[in-house]
Amino acid sequence: MPHRIEITLKDEVRDPRGERIKREIAHFLHLEVADVRTIDVYTVDAALSAEELTQVAAGPFSDPVIQNYSIDKPAATGFDYLVEVGFRPGVTDNVGRTAGEAIGYLLGRPLAAGEGVYTSVQYLVSGKLAQADAEKIATGLLCNTLIQRYQILDAATFKAQGGVAPFVPKVQVEAKVEVNTINLEVSDEELMRISRDGVLALTLDEMKIIQAHYRDPQVVEKRKSLGLGAAPTDVELEALAQTWSEHCKHKIFSADVTYDDGSGKTEKINSLFKSYIQKTTADVRAAQGDKDYCLSVFKDNAGVIKFNDDWSLVFKVETHNSPSALDPYGGALTGIVGVNRDPFGTGKGAKLIFNTDVFCFADPFYEKELPKRLLHPRRIYEGVVEGVEHGGNKSGIPTVNGSLVFDERFAGKPLVFCGTAGLMPATIKGEASHKKNIIPGDLIVMTGGRIGKDGIHGATFSSEELNENSPVSAVQIGDPITQKRMFDFLIRARDKALYRFITDNGAGGLSSSIGEMSEECGGCQLDLSKAPLKYPGLAPWEILISEAQERMSLAVPPEKIDEFMDMAKRYGVEATVLGTFTDSGIFHMLYGDKTVAYLPLSFMHAGLPPMQIPARWEKPVHEEPKLAPAADYTTDVKALLSSLNICSKESVVRRYDHEVQGGSVVKPFTGVDNDGPSDAAVVRPILDSFEGVVVGHGICPRYSDIDAYDMAANAIDEGLRNYVAVGGSLDLVAGLDNFCWCDPVLSERTPDGPYKMAQLVRANKALYDYCTVFSMPLISGKDSMKNDFYDGTTKISIPPTLLFSVIGKMEDARLAVTMDVKRAGDQVYLLGATANELGASEYLAQKGFVGNNVPKVDAQAALATYRAYGAALKAGLVASCHDLSDGGLAVAAAESAFAGGFGIELDLAQVPFKGDAAEKSDIVLLFSESASRLLVTVRAEKVAEFEKAMAGTACAKIGAVTAEPTLKVKGLAGNVVVNAGNAELKAAWQEPLKDL
Amino acid sequence: MTKAKALVITGNGTNCETEAAHACKLGGFDEARIAHIAELLTGEVTLDDYHFLNLTGGFLDGDDLGSAKAQANRLRYATVEGKQERLVEQITRFIADGKLILGVCNGFQLLVKMGMLPALGGNYLNQTATLTYNEGGRFQDRWCYLKVDAASPSLYTRGIEGGVYLPVRHGEGKFLVDDAKTLEMIEAKHLSCLKYSDKNYTAATMEFPENPNGSVNAIAGICDETGRIMGLMPHPEAFVHRTQHPRWTREELPEEGEGLIFFKNAAQYVKENF
């Protein structure tokens, strides 16, 4: 019989969790409740004696100083409504798992198979509420019904039925290890039904290619000899669907595109990826010649560049958008611990040194009606922020850089970008560690977590738009501790060279990881029945494609297997030999001794002709606002500082450990009160060296409303500009491109596909045009191409977004520069020219316009500025530097001033301007978001030297740092047009998100 | 002279082992070994061979049952392979041998939950205090000013004038005790060696954010009566060089960070006493 152990806080102890829920009930649901208290419930489904239960309850389950426990006796009292929330069967319950382990230690024996501990939380709500209100609190706040279940009891019912009955959310599936075959000798409609109903996300063309393969007489013959029928097994069809999914195959980036540039000129592009992304890197590397620092690009889970002779630097950025839309906490947590496995699974494995994250949300204070199924942006915000917090902090990886971007269209799908960098020794036991190989005969080993139904169809589901029927099982909850244990073990196994090859189990599960590994040596033979399962009853195809988290796949040489398995056991990590790598040319899956899939690798990996996608560019024309000049812009500056895209994100950033591992040099916040926004991060990954890793990023989705070419150009420039501002070197710098697009493929549902595809083409062209000039190779990236919501009536497409991350080195981190002004009397310089480029600016957005003059990036001018500035920084001539982006000069100056605790006086007449002089105005000079600009302060005695260093670039002295803490800007007419104290500017900037 | 040997335990969610070992070396230890808990449980590494035990920051077992609870349970019950003893016995022997333990953040939580702090009357296995959720309900990474009690027996804080400035990075740092008497004893014996304070170290404070978690009496760190065992929520190993300070680009700071003194004092004590 299961037992309920309930843990309550002692009466005199505050309940911060309850207090937070009370605040959120008021905030979200506009309901006033008197009090919320919480109780932790452990449902122990194990054969324990009464004495053992007491030991468990009094020991690991409760804290005697602040808590009481109660066994099989309801503890709740003094409430009007009780809501109990627990997980649905099969959902990862980390606390339950730890609780089970704790019982094992206490008893000196592990729990038996089938025994377990399941957790839930009771919320005791007091207040004048109706049943409907309680229901609203349960479903609108406390419980995500997709992964959790809940029960509501009013006080009377609770009393009458003697509390909450124990409930064990154990997965009960009938053991059905059968393999089905699917008849493909059917009509086209039927083929599509098979694809749709099975969440295979295969197109008709793809279904027909599969059909043709199974008609091939040679294939039929071979299958017959193996006892397989002519029709594909479900295992085979699922494996193909994973391998061919947009998520894994990047069909859009490999497509043949016919691009019409709007002038009637058309161009054939065979693969955007090859034509622009790979070509960028190839051309940059060729130009760099023997200075090339790329070690491994585009072929592994992450990109690898040289850091110094002894160490290599690894970086990858991923997205986890669709799962975060459904379960923000679990989706984002899985996003961060998932991307951790990429650098860890690159080469022979890297130590993880920092995370980055960028979130794109709709306004958390959104008050309009939302389509059913979409969670409120505030819930997404809260859940994602918390998921990444737990994933990053618990893994012991500092989160050093990131941003939050807001646009109403992200209500349709939030974007959750998570990045992780790693450091690996250049060589391990004499072999380059960024390389790996597999020799036929090596054993297939899986380590880490067990396989369940979680995450089935993640890869194919994210290759479709979000809709009402999106599958529940696509969501997983990450478990950072299981992963951390595995990494602790594997990094030591790596240093002993106990394995030859490692990769991550991500999208597509074993199907993808083993499928890709098989290509290394030419085949595999794997027994799915050997895979460790969370619970019995998984069909072979489910085992193959489950995306259950925290797993790595390895190739272990037979002579090392004993040592490998022994070590795994000692470190408490589950490792299982599943089969052998071969050179048979076949992806061969068995279940026991029965063949359940027999797919030629040549068919699996090359069987797909490119998609044909039309693209037609048509430059949008927006209303061009006539902005009347004003005598004073102070109010505008404050309004900009309070806009969601510009305001302080400190309430979020402080929840992320940005200093663990001890290498933090430039932190997210800086300045006299530790609250000014840094442009980029500097980290020393090797504690007895001063060599620094610098990381920054650029993102400006709004610019896509005018031209995605300029959106991409500005993102690249912003990323590099932030990187350069703190001291990143141009001699060792690399970029990562993460595309998040709305579906650009012409179809009934997407009649504007050609335009969206043209936007994608243009963004790619910008990538090539700018990165080659900047000599910045692209080392890795990812695309997520179906960021739309469609429920049959409402369609929400996100603005096409490129996140451009920049990583590189600074030789001496002690030369790093921060954005806060340092002392009165320092001179203020503006680097880079300003133009009438208010198009899609934050300023116009505030006024309700888009405009047309999007900032254009002059790559050569930018490069000249960055080179000269870098030299000045190295010579110690720079006191502070802040990049100009959203909100332009006015915002950058305000932030630099209040971060430093001094005032700034500026004269707009001194600002370098490019373009028609008639377009020069206070508004343009204050708020234009022209690219490649930096606001720099220089000590008075270094002014001459600094000007000399900047000679030949657009650079002018535009003011000075003042003792009086006020931002004072003189307009073109000579009058003061902005005048505000630091305190009020900072308050405006800190206000919007400070309570979230 | 004896080689001063420090041990840093890692595994099951410990995160700060590298910088803790680095700080030990900088502080003067001849050896700073990072050992996985598995190496202790298999007997490959024995506490007896070391002088200074570092229980450092992280999220042991995800802090799933409350911070460090699962590890406290593990250390109490797990036995060392091939030896007729539990790990906890090695630890109590380590203490009885006059050796040093520093618990930082998650390590402090572990010490408190095992009963090793404040360990009034030398009872090292009786829990009388705890560290629980911050009053604000949120994890916080921010730097805090910590006033030092000069009359404290803690050997780690010796020579600190006024206080130290260190980062805190935790969600469960609110220090609470089981009853008023425990708190009285802690204060009377000057065991509460570090308190959150204003930036001039004039007075302890209960105000957020100076006091980031609402700890009773603003307690940030305590020691046992011998002064050899200490736990604190702030991270001394995270400030051993000036570039780790949040304002190093604007203030004239000495090369050495303020947290290093904890490790220097420990190394010096070992060298003088072993």
From TrEMBL, chain A:
One Pfam family matching this protein: PurS
Reaction(s) catalysed (UniProt annotation): N(2)-formyl-N(1)-(5-phospho-beta-D-ribosyl)glycinamide + L-glutamine + ATP + H2O = 2-formamido-N(1)-(5-O-phospho-beta-D-ribosyl)acetamidine + L-glutamate + ADP + phosphate + H(+)
Matches recorded under InterPro entries: PRibForGlyAmidine_synth_PurL, PurL_linker, PurM-like_C_dom, PurM-like_C_sf, PurM-like_N, PurM-like_N_sf, PurS, PurS-like_sf
Record keywords, A-Z: ATP-binding, Cytoplasm, Ligase, Magnesium, Metal-binding, Nucleotide-binding, Purine biosynthesis
Binding-site residues, substrate: 341, 476, 784
Protein localization: Cytoplasm
Protein's pathway: Purine metabolism; IMP biosynthesis via de novo pathway; 5-amino-1-(5-phospho-D-ribosyl)imidazole from N(2)-formyl-N(1)-(5-phospho-D-ribosyl)glycinamide: step 1/2
Enzyme class: ligase
Family indicated by similarity: Belongs to the FGAMS family.
Binding site for Mg(2+) 1: 318
Domain (PurM-like N-terminal) ranges: 300-424, 678-788
Quaternary structure annotation from Swiss-Prot or TrEMBL: Monomer. Part of the FGAM synthase complex composed of 1 PurL, 1 PurQ and 2 PurS subunits.
Keyword Translocase: no
Function comment: Part of the phosphoribosylformylglycinamidine synthase complex involved in the purines biosynthetic pathway. Catalyzes the ATP-dependent conversion of formylglycinamide ribonucleotide (FGAR) and glutamine to yield formylglycinamidine ribonucleotide (FGAM) and glutamate. The FGAM synthase complex is composed of three subunits. PurQ produces an ammonia molecule by converting glutamine to glutamate. PurL transfers the ammonia molecule to FGAR to form FGAM in an ATP-dependent manner.
Domain PurM-like C-terminal per the UniProt entry, residue ranges: 440-585, 823-969
UniProt: Mg(2+) 2 binding residues: 342, 504
This protein's record includes keyword Glycosyltransferase: no
Active site (catalytic residues): 247, 320
Protein name as annotated: Phosphoribosylformylglycinamidine synthase subunit PurL
Domain Phosphoribosylformylglycinamidine synthase linker as annotated: residue spans: 191-251
Lineage: superkingdom: Bacteria
Listed EC numbers: 6.3.5.3
From TrEMBL, chain B:
Keyword Lipoprotein part of the UniProt annotation: no
Keywords: ATP-binding, Cytoplasm, Glutamine amidotransferase, Hydrolase, Ligase, Nucleotide-binding, Purine biosynthesis
SUPFAM superfamilies from the UniProt entry: Class I glutamine amidotransferase-like
Matching PANTHER family: PHOSPHORIBOSYLFORMYLGLYCINAMIDINE SYNTHASE
Name of the molecule in the record: Phosphoribosylformylglycinamidine synthase subunit PurQ
